[in-house]
Amino acid sequence: MAALAHPFPMPGPSAPRRDALPAMPARHATGPGEAHLSAAMRAAQDGDAAAYSHVLRACVPMIAGIARRQGVRGAAVDDVVQETLLTVHRARATYDPARPFLPWLRAIAQRRSVDALRRHGRRPREVHDPAALEDQVDAGSEPGQALEDAQEAREREARLARAVARLPAGQRQAVEHLALAERSLAETAALTGRSKGALKVNLHRALKALRAALTSDKDGRDV
Amino acid sequence: MSEPDRHERLVEDLAGRLAPVRRLGPPGRRAFLWCVAALALGLLVLPFADMSALHVRLSVPDLRLSAFGAVLTAAAAAVAAFQTSVPGRSRAWAWLPLPALALWLGASGLGCLRAWLAPASGIAGGEEMRGCFVFLMAVSLPLSALLVLMLRRACPLRPNLTAALAGLAAAAGAAALLVPLHPHDATATDLAVHACAVLLVIGLNGLLGGRLLDGSVR
Questions:
Q1: How far is A205 from chain B (nearest CA, A)?
Q2: Reported ipTM
Q3: pLDDT under 50: residue ranges of chain B
Q4: Domain limits, CATH 1.10.1740.10, in chain A
Q5: Topology annotation, domain A2-10+31-122
């Protein structure tokens, strides 16, 4: 698209990026308009990565706003943003540039918001809740002791790190992304190329292995 | 990792592996292509049809209307399935097949009275009805598979609804293709067998197709 060669500005005063673009015209100071986003998305469909990053960055606050209006609160809003960006990526071929961009985006964001509300209603503490991992680790130690003794806490962290490092690559990846970095299943699946099902299985096995490893460590020390 | 950083990383990651995509054709055109494929399947079964019996049956108004309703339901449900597979399109598209479905069911329902109105009509035996059921299921399978395959290229945000509409399209398509081969006139039991097959196809599509379509989006 010759006419659209890098017409999409980068938001914010951050450091220049490898795909830095000309500054946003004054008329877009309050945010990119419908036509602008539509043209950028069209360019993205043709493979223009700069236009694509511009669209995705512009979408982030819009998606967050849609999620909040749907009743999503707290950290779940950011999960909706992530899930929506991933869906936008997978569904980008379905966008018809002859139609407005925002209803297309809104439909995806609303759906992901509803998914998030349902998910959080069903399982308030899922496996990728970091506290769930702590529970697994705590299961092998005496309650309250770790909080009182900083030295003990540090040792436990080190034992956990060693146990994680000993896990097979797939299980380690699941723990690092889902439990430690607090990424969503969809985000982790996109980053690692593994299916959600495989990630869940890997995480489950990893937690089991970690519990066994940490319990045997403790038993070993206690004897 | 802070949330803005997390989003920024994902944006950079997605943009970094961006590949050009071929824009999806309009849903109407994609539905038309599926109908053409269903017609091609119909051409394959045509040599086995009893054309003179078909001619006689289609001269009866309710049988003609029933066949027309099945064709119309298949086409309308396919259009609805493709429309609902595209984000931003109205959910009201899901209602599109209902008038045709009402015509199909209504006209088929008239066949229930045939045993009393025209006692000389050919009534289906158990073996023939089993044959109808097997035909409907066997033809629905490739039609459903093709439809789900085509729909997976889109992004159905309500995968179960889209898959159920796909099931209706496939089942109605199979019923339309059964018309030239149907060895008997419609009766209440025959209609019940057809209805069971259609509901089973829709249910299986909604369940299995929904999962397949859901997996294409996430």
A1: 23
A2: 0.78
A3: 218
A4: 2-10+31-122
A5: Rna Polymerase Sigma Factor; Chain: A (1.10.1740)
